[in-house]
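Revision sheet: structure tokens.
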Amino acid sequence: MREVKLTNTELAAEVSGRLLEFPKYTTQIINLANQNAQGTRPRVVGQMTELFRQFGGKTFEEWDAWYRERKSGALDDAADRIYAMVENLREAVQLIDREMVREWVEDLVLVKTFVGLCFQEAILSKIAQMKGLSFRVSTPAEESRGIDGFIGDTAVSIKPSTYTTKNMLGEHLQGELVLYEKKKDGISFSFNF
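Predicted:
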């Protein structure tokens, strides 16, 4: 059996007939700007899945014309929102020096790790207490598989509530998901097991 791989760029070119190539790192910056500006949210560009279901054509050219007719100005609105955020990022980048990067690394590696791991253990303990079970934190091998701990025999991954909105994360979680949110007076968390 022969295996063939189409890159995302090749796939897009194959189905649309358009080959867009961007300079290195630019799409990462535009994606970040879009996440902050929310330029491609349904309220700006429309609910794409629903729009595509309504579309009756077959070709990219038909889709392009159909969409533009129904959502006139949406692409420009999205681009304006995102470009404004790119400009904000451009200004912010000018403020970053090595010392700021060093402080950011220290905050991530020391402060956020300590706080996050303390949250995890407290959450594991509370859920175990609620269920009348024991708990334990994960081993390094289990952690590398996306498991933060066990409640009884159930593997658990504990993430901040914003985790589900972060599309950039390539982590594959195993076990049950617990989402937590920091509040002024503590933390709240939710789970479904």
